[in-house]
Write a structure and sequence with these properties.
META domain-containing protein; Hsp_HslJ-like; mainly beta; nine-stranded antiparallel beta sheet; DUF306_Meta_HslJ; 315 residues; eight-stranded antiparallel beta sheet; disordered N terminus; disordered C terminus; 2 domains; Lipocalin; HslJ-like_sf
């Protein structure tokens, strides 16, 4: 394989950004990088467990903690987000990768894994811990630095419920990835959901939407609006605490559409009415909802500006 990518950074949380921004794996493959994406998902990474781990289809599992038990150490790749850029200032596109590690408890540690693509394989150049249960809003590679816009647990936060926003940067050196900056930027709020629209990509775990249906969501101050697949809708937004929200006074137009579309609309609006909170997952927005069928997650991606290219939006 030729040196089409000197390095790649894979993250577990991020959003649309400009130069050096995230690139979705499917976009990378369409651009001729299918082999690179495959090698990243089958590379060997150090610095996560005591011994190196080799991913197979983006996942590694160790031996059970207790013989015959189901709980075991696991490492996985966040496969929808890749950052590319020049990490070592050699004029070539370089990068890193976002991986998660779980040891069977409630914790979930996130790591950056920098890799280089050679003639025959991908080599892990360095690995850096981002944190436990950190949410990634966006990321960039600029002037040799990887910078993540994250949400982490602040001094008063429980580990489960981070609200502190920060910009954290890493740089590549001879001994791997090293943190070079850490700036706290504020507290998570409803304003962090505005600035652009969101498009629904999952109506519940693994339930992807048909390509010909767009369900959208736009936050503006204490109001929300969008299209629910057939009709336009609107509602007020309540945010009692950082990371929490609820909608009230929901209304919608009453146009009729074919039944499959109407069914999706009913399910979406029903879930939205039960929304209780929000979080970020590698640039995606996740609304947690209480429904008659139990807890449900609505997963959105940032709405793409038609003038932007896939590499600029991460989609």
């Amino acid at each position: 394989m030729s040196k089409r990518l000197a390095s790649a950074v894979i993250l577990i949380a991020a959003a649309a950004c400009s130069r050096g921004g995230p690139v979705a794996v499917d976009s990378l493959e369409k651009a001729g990088g299918a082999q690179i994406a495959f090698e990243i998902a089958h590379a060997t990474y150090t610095g996560i467990m005591d011994a190196p781990v080799t991913l197979i289809d983006g996942r590694w599992e160790g031996e059970p903690f207790v013989e015959g038990g189901a709980s075991r150490p696991t490492v996985g790749l966040v496969d929808h987000f890749i950052l590319t850029g020049d990490l070592n200032q050699d004029g070539l596109d370089e990068a890193v990768a976002l991986l998660w590690e779980s040891s069977g408890g409630s914790g979930n540690r996130l790591f950056l894994g920098a890799v280089s693509s050679g003639e025959d394989n991908v080599t892990n150049l360095g690995t850096a811990l981002i944190g436990d249960r950190v949410q990634i809003r966006s990321g960039t590679i600029d002037d040799g630095r990887i910078t993540l816009d994250i949400v982490r647990a602040g001094p008063e936060d429980a580990a489960c419920c981070p609200t502190e926003k920060a910009l954290v940067s890493w740089a590549l050196s001879e001994d791997g990835l090293n943190q070079v900056a850490d700036e706290t930027t504020g507290t998570l709020s409803l304003a962090d959901l505005g600035g652009h629209g969101w498009v629904l990509i999952e109506l519940g775990h693994g339930q992807h939407l048909p390509e010909d249906i767009e369900i959208s969501l736009l936050f503006q101050d204490d109001r929300v609006s969008g299209n629910s697949g057939c009709n336009s809708y609107f509602a007020g937004v309540l945010a009692p605490k950082a990371g929490e929200l609820a909608f009230n006074g929901m209304g919608a137009t009453r146009m009729a559409c074919p039944e499959p579309r109407m069914d999706l609309e009913r399910r979406y609006l029903s879930a939205l009415a039960g929304a209780t909170g929000y979080r970020f997952l590698a640039g995606r927005l996740v609304l947690t909802c209480d429904t008659d069928e139990g807890p449900q997650a609505l997963v959105f991606t940032a709405k793409k500006n038609p003038a932007e290219s896939p590499a600029e939006t991460g989609e």
